[in-house]
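Morning!

This is the sequence you dropped in the shared folder:
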Amino acid sequence: GRAAIAATTAALGRPGTLCNASRRAGAPRPTQALTRNMSAGSAASGPFFPFLESKVPYKGTESDDLLAFRHYNAEEEILGKKMKDWLRFSVCFWHTFRANGLDPFGKPTIQRHWDDGSDSLDNALRRVRAAFELFTKLGVEYYTFHDVDVAPEGATLAETNENLDKVSDLMLELQQATGVKLLWGTANLFSHPRYACGGSTNPDPEIFARAAAQVKKAIDITHKLSGQGFVFWGGREGYQCILNTDMHREMAHYAQMLKMAVAYKKKIGFTGQILVEPKPREPMKHQYD
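The structure's back. Tokens below.
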């Protein structure tokens, strides 16, 4: 509902940026006390969202409280199931904790008082603590992430994997403490320049091998965190112009990656589903999935 959006927007934006710009027309402004409290938490250990003293409540459609649900009542039973079981909301780590609010025509507009903007391991661990505080205060029982959303990429693959191990140790600890569960994990095979021509479909065997190693580790971490699925989003797995593309070879490479992923998940006993998320023309003109 609008209240949930307002709560999340307030959590993500510092006053004067997206927080006020995203306010629903005609809705009451956050009080000065709320605005002051948005940055009152400890940047190191929390609370990161002190203006939310407890879980966001359900108050019904007559409520004007921006920090309350108007339509979503998690415990309400509908046709024999609670609303939270019909609507298994999850918080996406990349949009909520890594997006910086820029577009092709401007600079970042989102500032988070706990995030120093660095790629340090300490900053990554702090983000995870902030994330789980928001999950629990929103009453959301699931979350999702890409590997590089939660842990910084190192100078080598081994260093990257070590960072993932350290960050996922904290994620597992916080899952056990809060009851929040991982819906699915995935590997980011699209942001780094090495993947400009794809990961699974890249014509360079070294890049294909790097993508396969990244997928392997991401499946390991998803399994460690008891994720219910593992997602392939093929944003770079396609082409811009058919004239410089060998479609048969690239689709064969993509199929091989999927087959290896299924074989590996069975090998380690991961029972989650392998999912493919098609998004046409995001960003390639044609995507194979």
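Headline: The CA atoms of residues 125 and 268 lie 27 Å apart.

More detail when I'm at my desk.
O.
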